[in-house]
Design a protein that fits this description.
The complex is a heterodimer of chains A (532) and B (282). Chain A is built from 19 helices and nine strands. Chain A has 532 residues and is of the alpha/beta class. Chain A has two domains: 6-73 and 130-257 and 322-411, 7-stranded beta/alpha barrel, CATH 3.20.110.10; 419-528, immunoglobulin/albumin-binding domain-like. In chain A, strands 1, 2, 3, 4, 8 and 9 form a six-stranded parallel β-sheet that branches. In chain A, α12 (314-339) packs across α13 (365-378), α15 (425-442) runs parallel beside α18 (479-501) and α16 packs across α19. Chain A is globular. Among the domains of chain B are: 32-129, Immunoglobulin-like; 207-275, Immunoglobulin-like. Chain B is built from five helices and 14 strands. Chain B has helices spanning 51-60, 65-68, 147-156, 166-183, 187-190, and strands at residues 32-39, 42-48, 70-77, 83-87, 94-98, 105-113, 119-124, 128-129, 213-219, 225-228, 231-233, 240-246, 250-259, 266-275. In chain B, the strands form four sheets. In chain B, strands 3, 4, 6, 7 and 8 form a five-stranded antiparallel β-sheet that branches. Chain B has a four-stranded antiparallel β-sheet with strand order 11-10-13-14, with no helix packed on it. The two termini of chain B are 35 Å apart. Classes of the chains: A alpha/beta (532), B alpha+beta (282). At the A-B interface, α1, α8, α9, α10 and α12 of A face β1, β2, α3, α4 and α5 of B.
Chain lengths: 532, 282
């Protein structure tokens, strides 16, 4: 094969905040996790394994954030997930029976759900629920580059102590090692948010590369010679890749984005609302409130009322996904061709998406990715898929640039996570970090109960720092839950901190916290040791 | 942030918590000033002045400082060669401050400007680097490029147009949902049909009343003239003001104008506040 004229780096950011409530049998917000396994994580895993098995060279890059990895390896959550999956299988069996007397289109869709759910159970059972091991194998075999993220997706630019930033990265790196048997080479900065000094902490932790939104690189100093189409090094020697706007728009944009195609599945028309209450009741939450259960039989159709939606056809939707993949590839060929007229080296186009977009919101998204990978491999030789490390090995000489402080949020900076609705969070987070660093410094060799308490303080601080809470408060989705989670973790930290300081640790209280907020079982509070 | 958490409200109408969680401390008894960058032009500041600091001021400067001093946040450039003051109300505890330009390193001090012009520091902040918000003028000799080529690359790089991230798709999905709701009579769409939710047990005589009002507050030079919604208002002796408004459903515009005593300077801030009330659960 001739040398390609350019490269495509596809990055999927898979993340959920740590949501685990052993104190309830049935907890609504845990659904985000269960839905994402069924609709996104397993379909993407299955797709990558299939491509690997067929020898299609399509290396993906994927962040699996530490909270997500901890949930995917949590026994309680995975047992609950299996129970949920079995319920879905039961419902899909009933649905195949029920739709026999309806139009063939409904029957085709019902059978697709049943087939999908059984396939997911087969995959989950084959690895005894340890899905991360299968991702790990894909990475070991060179088909996937897994990157890490902040320990709890904490928003680094709004942390003022270097120790706090360091702990977010160090804990993530150690956790990655535990799950994937090697240290991570790359990281997804939480919310793509960069501030000066972050690269120093990355460097110290052995991280070689990360990503910025396009203006993070484009507004860097000095001016970047290749725009956003080549990575750069910061002064610290960490490589920064940048998100391509054109490919972002093709998928995200409300007007011209692929997911709005009329033949794709309509997200908002769900059997949880459509079917007879008694029939669907066993598949709802304990409170019996109608909600989405995940089986949907209608397509987007057009700008029509939900009642006027037309039946969905899985085969027709797949054809659309294939043609969208073809369109995406064609546009990349033109993009690369054009870029070569102003670049004297092969450009790398970095396309970054939330993983959960694929499968959950855009049901056909995983098919799109699979078609795209095949087409890129078989149908053209203008560009190749690559990963950041492979690109860096090929093109080690890069311009040195100080990136612009930035994020990938609305308006490009920090306002989504710092505005009148959520700015009350930071005085608490900052004082907690001060207290944590102080305690770590004063107790360098704690053991027994004191050590357990200090470790738990580190967990509570990290959990309080999740950027998800500030985000949800701004967006207004699950706002009460996000505010309560912030207050809960701050309150637990402050109570336990005074117990440690006054040397009167309530072991029963501590045990309760360890049981409930059990993220990072191997954490060592000394990651917060004061730095000179 | 994952997009599957962005379910617009409608899809899970009764989702989530009503429980508020524990109350957190209002203050920590620690004197501090923290500044945080929000975007190229805005800084968020918050502060706490503990009693030990006031006692210290009383001892070193005198008891009158607190009442006669004008509280400001003083912003310094990194080399401290330049500074400017922003008047604040100490009890506000936090403030958003607009910067004259993007970029640069900044540090701030909160303190009192005494009648004789002396500045008494109460707390000093962390240092931050502000985003520039624009393409750098610094060119790299080693990595030179002709201007026309750079301009093409700049456009191909998105031209500095800002993000299409999670919030955008959330908004887009929420808009789609609103649209579908507005044109649908489908029982599933609103998700609040009586079939969908077991009727809440009605307790006879049980009642709930709630309303809300709006408080607007601020500060300027003590001798300035201030209008709110075009009406002149009286300032407190220290230049602060505070007004209470009724807040009916709908949108309320509150322009605030301040003019210096000599009439040479004029500044304005305008608020737009909207309220909507949902009484469907009464």
């Amino acid at each position: 094969m001739t040398e390609p004229k350019g490269y495509l780096n596809l990055v999927l950011h898979a993340h959920l905040p740590y949501i685990r409530h052993p104190e309830y049998n049935d907890f609504l917000e845990e659904d985000w996790f269960y839905e994402a396994i069924t609709e996104t994580y397993v379909p993407i895993l299955d797709m990558m394994e299939r491509l690997a098995g067929e020898g299609v060279r399509s290396p993906f890059t994927m962040s699996l954030t530490p909270p997500l990895c901890n949930m995917l390896s949590d026994e309680l959550l995975m047992n609950r997930y299996r129970a949920r999956l079995n319920k879905l299988i039961e419902l899909s069996e009933k649905e195949v029976h029920r739709t026999r007397s309806l139009s063939p289109a409904f029957q085709e869709t019902a059978e697709m759900y049943r087939r999908n759910f059984y396939r997911i159970r087969e995959i989950v059972d084959a690895c005894h629920g340890r899905l991360l091991e299968r991702f790990r194998r894909l990475q070991d075999d060179g088909h996937l580059e897994i990157i890490t993220c902040g320990a709890t997706h904490g928003y680094l630019p709004l942390m003022i102590r270097e120790e706090a930033r360091y702990a977010q990265i160090r804990v993530a790196v150690d956790d990655y090692q535990r799950h994937f048997g090697r240290p991570p080479k790359g990281i997804w900065l939480p919310e793509c948010a960069f501030a000066p000094g972050v690269d120093k902490v990355l460097k110290e932790n052995g991280i070689r590369f990360t990503f910025l939104d396009s203006h993070g690189l484009l507004f860097g100093t000095p001016r970047p010679r290749y725009g956003i189409f080549s990575p750069v090094y910061s002064q610290q020697g960490v490589a920064f890749f940048s998100r391509d706007m054109e490919t972002a728009q093709q998928v995200w944009s409300a007007e011209m984005g692929y997911p709005g195609d009329l033949s794709y599945r309509e997200f908002y028309r769900d059997v949880g609302y459509d079917l007879d209450y008694e029939y669907i009741r066993p598949y709802l939450h304990e409170d019996g409130v109608r909600r989405n259960v995940g089986l949907k039989y209608f397509k987007v159709t057009g700008r029509v009322a939900l009642g006027d939606k037309q039946p969905y056809s899985p085969s027709a939707a797949k054809e659309t996904a294939a043609s969208h993949a073809g369109n995406f590839m064609f546009n990349r060929e033109r993009q690369v061709e054009y870029l070569r007229t102003v670049m004297n080296r092969p450009p790398v186009v970095v396309s970054i998406y939330d993983a959960e977009l694929f499968g959950h919101w855009w049901f056909e998204g995983p098919y799109f990715l699979e078609y795209l990978a095949r087409k890129v491999h078989y149908d053209q030789d203008m560009f190749k898929m690559t990963t950041p490390m492979r690109y860096l090995e090929k093109f080690p000489e890069l311009q040195i640039i100080e990136p612009e402080p930035s994020s990938w949020g609305d308006k490009g900076y920090h306002e989504v996570w710092l505005n009148a609705s959520n700015d009350w969070i930071y005085p608490h987070l900052h004082i907690m970090a001060d207290k944590m660093i102080d305690l770590a410094g004063k107790n360098p060799n704690a053991d027994g109960v004191q050590k357990r308490a200090l470790n738990q303080l580190a967990r509570e601080l990290l959990l309080a720092q999740s950027s998800d809470w500030a985000f949800l408060i701004t967006v207004g989705t699950a706002k009460n839950y996000a505010e309560k989670r912030t207050r809960d973790h701050c309150d637990r930290f402050l109570r336990l901190e005074s117990q440690v300081r006054e040397n009167r640790i309530d072991e029963g209280y501590l045990h309760g916290l360890e049981d409930r907020d059990n993220i990072f079982p191997l954490i060592d509070y000394r990651v917060y040791s004061p730095r000179s | 942030m994952s997009s599957n958490m962005n379910a617009p409200q409608g899809s899970q109408p009764f989702g989530g918590y009503i429980e508020r969680g524990p109350e957190l401390p209002q203050s920590y008894g620690v004197t501090r000033l923290v500044i945080l960058p929000r975007d190229p032009r805005w800084i968020h500041c918050y502060w706490e002045i503990a009693s030990y600091t006031w006692q210290e001021i009383e001892r070193t400067v005198g008891g009158a400082a607190r009442s006669s001093g004008r509280p400001v946040i003083r912003f310094f450039t990194s080399d401290e060669s330049k500074f400017f003051d922003v008047p604040v109300h100490i009890d506000a505890r936090n403030w958003y401050i607009q910067m004259p330009e993007g970029g640069g390193f900044w540090v701030a001090e909160i303190g009192l400007v005494l009648p004789d012009g002396r500045f008494v520091r109460l707390a000093r902040s962390n240092q931050i680097k502000m985003p520039s918000g624009q393409v750098s003028n610094v060119l790299d000799e080693k990595w030179g490029i002709v201007k026309a080529e750079w301009e093409r690359l700049f456009q191909l790089s998105g031209g500095g147009k800002l993000g299409a991230g999670s919030l955008e798709i959330t908004k887009m999905l929420a808009q789609r949902w609103e649209f579908l709701k507005s044109i649908s009579s489908w029982p599933g769409s609103a998700g609040i049909s009586s079939l969908a939710r077991p009727a809440a047990p009605g307790i006879k005589g049980f009642w709930l009343r709630a309303d809300c009002e709006l408080i607007v507050y601020g500060a300027t030079e003590a001798d300035a003239k201030v209008t709110v919604q075009g009406q002149p208002i009286a300032l407190n002796p220290d230049g602060t003001f505070s007004l209470r408004f009724a807040l009916p459903d709908g949108t309320l515009n509150i322009p605030i104008e301040a003019t210096s005593a000599d009439g040479d300077f004029n500044k304005g801030i305008a608020f737009t506040v909207s309220r909507s009330t949902d009484k469907s659960r009464l």
